[in-house]
C-alpha cells in the first residue's frame, strides 16, 4: 500500500514534467518559425494604425487642400482626372471627407488603375499615383504578405494561427508554479538569461490577450480562412442579409470588384444590375445625380462611388468609416436613380456586427486615439517578445546545437495534445495543418535521423 501511495506523486510529477516539456517544445518551434513574420506584422501594423495621420502630414501635398468657394461637381472632377491620364476612364470617385480634403478619382487605362488627386475647388490635379503604389496600400499588402503573391499570403494565415498557439502555450508556461519571480516582476540583470526569460514571460502575460485578439481579428483578411468564413456566414444567414437581393437582378461581380474599400461582410455580396429595359428610353442619371442621391439618403461624407462600366452597371456608394454606425453600401440604378440595395451596419446579424467591430478595433478606429495607442502598445509588445525570445535562446543554446527544449519523458502526453490540434485544425485548417506537419517532423523525422536528433537537442 505504501509503495502504491509513494508512486502516485511520482507519476503525477512525471506527467506534469512531460506536459510542460511538450508544450515548451511546441512553443519553441512555433516561435522559431514565425518570429520574422510577427516582426513584420508588428512594424507594418503600427504604421497602418496611423494611416490618416501619415496622409495628413507626409502626403499632405495631395490629400489636403485649402477651401475656396464652391466645390466643382463630381462629374467635372472625374472628367479632369480622366483627361490627366490619356486613354483612361473614371471607375470610381471618392467624395471628400471634409472641406479641406481632396477628391480622389480612380481611373483605368492601358497603364492600369491610377489614383488621381484633384483639388475639388479649382480642379487642379495634385498628384497621380498607381493604385497599387499608394503608400498605405503597399503597407497593408506587405502586412498581409499579399504583396509577394498568393502563396506568401497563405503563409501569413498560418502565422496568425501560430500566434494564437504561442499565446496559449506561453500563458501555460508563464502560469505561476511557486517561483518567486517572473510572474509580474523581472529578476536579474540584462547580463543574465533569467532577466530575458522573465521579461519575455511578463510581456507575453500582460499583452497575451491583446496579441490573441489581433491574431483572430486579422483572420478575416486571410485568403483561405477569410474567404471560406465569409461564404459560410452568408450561407448560414449570419453575414450580410441575402434576402435584400431577392428582388433584384444580380451580376457576376461582387462589391470588392468595383470599389477600393468596403466593409468585410459585404465584400463578397453580388452587385445588382440596372434595369436594362429602361436603357432604351432613358439616359443614365450621371455621377452628379448619383452622388446627390447618396447624400440625400444620408450617406456620410468620405464615401466611395463606383461608376458603371457598362449599360447594365450600377452606381455603388460605400463607406467603411471609423464610426461603424455610418458603415453603409447603396447600389443605385444608373437610369432611374432608384436605390436597389441599401444596407448598413445596423442591418448585419450579431456575428456580422461582431466581426466588423473586431476589424475596426484591430485597425485602431473604434475608440479614437486610445484605440490607436492600445494597438500600438500591443505591436510594441510583439516586437519586445520577439527580441527577448531571440536573446533568451541565444544565451541558453549549447555550442553547435539549436537548443530545442528536451523531449517529454512520457510521449503519451502527446495523445491529448493531438486531440487539441485536431480541434484547432477544424477551426483554422491552414494553421492546423502546419502544426500537424511540425509535430510529425518532431516526433517521427527527428527521432529517427541521428544528425537532426543531435542538432535539435
Automatic annotation (TrEMBL):
Residues 72-128 form the PepSY domain. The keyword Transport does not apply. The keyword Plastid does not apply. The chain crosses the membrane at residues 26-50, 155-175, 195-216, 373-394, 414-441. Keywords: Membrane, Transmembrane, Transmembrane helix. It comes from the Bacteria. Pfam families: PepSY, PepSY_TM. This is Putative iron-regulated membrane protein.
Amino acid at each position: 500500500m505504501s509503495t502504491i501511495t509513494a508512486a502516485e506523486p511520482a507519476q503525477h510529477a512525471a506527467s506534469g514534467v512531460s506536459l510542460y516539456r511538450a508544450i515548451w517544445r511546441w512553443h519553441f518551434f512555433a516561435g522559431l518559425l514565425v518570429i520574422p513574420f510577427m516582426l513584420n506584422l508588428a512594424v507594418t501594423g503600427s504604421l497602418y494604425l496611423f494611416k490618416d495621420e501619415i496622409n495628413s502630414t507626409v502626403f499632405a501635398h495631395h490629400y489636403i487642400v485649402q477651401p475656396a468657394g464652391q466645390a466643382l461637381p463630381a462629374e467635372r472632377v472625374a472628367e479632369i482626372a480622366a483627361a490627366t491620364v490619356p486613354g483612361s476612364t473614371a471607375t470610381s470617385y471618392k467624395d471628400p471627407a471634409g472641406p479641406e480634403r481632396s477628391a480622389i478619382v480612380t481611373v483605368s487605362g492601358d497603364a492600369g488603375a491610377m489614383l488621381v488627386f484633384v483639388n475639388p475647388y479649382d480642379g487642379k490635379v495634385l498628384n497621380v499615383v498607381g493604385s497599387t503604389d499608394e503608400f498605405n496600400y503597399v503597407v497593408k499588402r506587405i502586412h498581409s504578405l499579399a504583396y509577394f503573391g498568393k502563396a506568401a499570403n497563405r503563409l501569413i494565415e498560418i502565422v496568425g494561427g501560430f500566434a494564437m498557439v504561442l499565446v496559449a502555450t506561453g500563458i501555460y508556461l508563464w502560469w505561476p508554479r511557486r517561483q518567486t519571480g517572473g510572474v509580474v516582476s523581472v529578476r536579474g540583470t540584462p547580463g543574465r538569461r533569467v532577466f530575458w526569460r522573465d521579461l519575455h514571460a511578463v510581456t507575453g502575460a500582460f499583452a497575451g490577450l491583446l496579441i490573441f485578439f489581433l491574431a483572430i481579428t486579422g483572420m478575416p483578411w486571410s485568403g483561405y480562412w477569410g474567404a471560406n468564413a465569409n461564404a459560410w456566414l452568408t450561407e448560414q444567414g449570419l453575414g450580410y442579409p441575402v434576402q435584400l437581393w431577392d428582388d433584384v437582378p444580380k451580376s457576376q461581380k461582387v462589391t470588392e470588384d468595383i470599389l477600393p474599400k468596403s466593409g468585410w461582410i459585404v465584400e463578397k455580396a453580388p452587385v445588382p444590375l440596372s434595369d436594362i429595359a429602361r436603357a432604351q428610353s432613358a439616359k443614365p442619371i450621371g455621377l452628379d445625380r448619383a452622388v446627390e442621391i447618396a447624400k440625400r439618403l444620408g450617406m456620410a461624407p468620405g464615401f466611395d462611388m463606383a461608376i458603371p462600366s457598362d449599360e447594365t452597371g450600377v452606381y455603388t456608394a460605400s463607406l467603411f468609416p471609423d464610426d461603424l454606425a455610418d458603415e453603409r453600401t447603396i447600389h443605385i440604378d444608373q437610369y432611374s436613380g432608384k436605390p436597389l440595395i441599401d444596407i448598413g451596419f445596423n442591418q448585419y446579424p450579431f456575428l456580422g456586427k461582431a466581426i466588423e467591430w473586431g476589424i475596426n478595433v484591430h485597425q485602431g478606429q473604434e475608440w479614437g486615439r486610445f484605440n490607436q495607442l492600445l494597438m500600438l502598445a500591443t505591436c510594441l509588445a510583439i516586437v519586445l517578445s520577439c527580441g527577448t525570445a531571440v536573446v533568451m535562446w541565444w544565451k541558453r543554446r549549447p555550442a553547435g546545437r539549436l537548443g530545442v527544449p528536451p523531449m517529454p519523458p512520457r510521449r503519451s502526453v502527446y495523445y491529448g495534445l493531438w486531440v487539441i490540434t485536431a480541434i484547432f485544425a477544424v477551426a483554422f485548417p491552414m494553421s492546423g495543418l502546419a502544426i500537424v506537419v511540425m509535430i510529425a517532423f518532431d516526433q517521427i523525422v527527428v527521432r529517427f535521423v541521428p544528425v537532426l536528433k543531435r542538432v535539435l537537442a
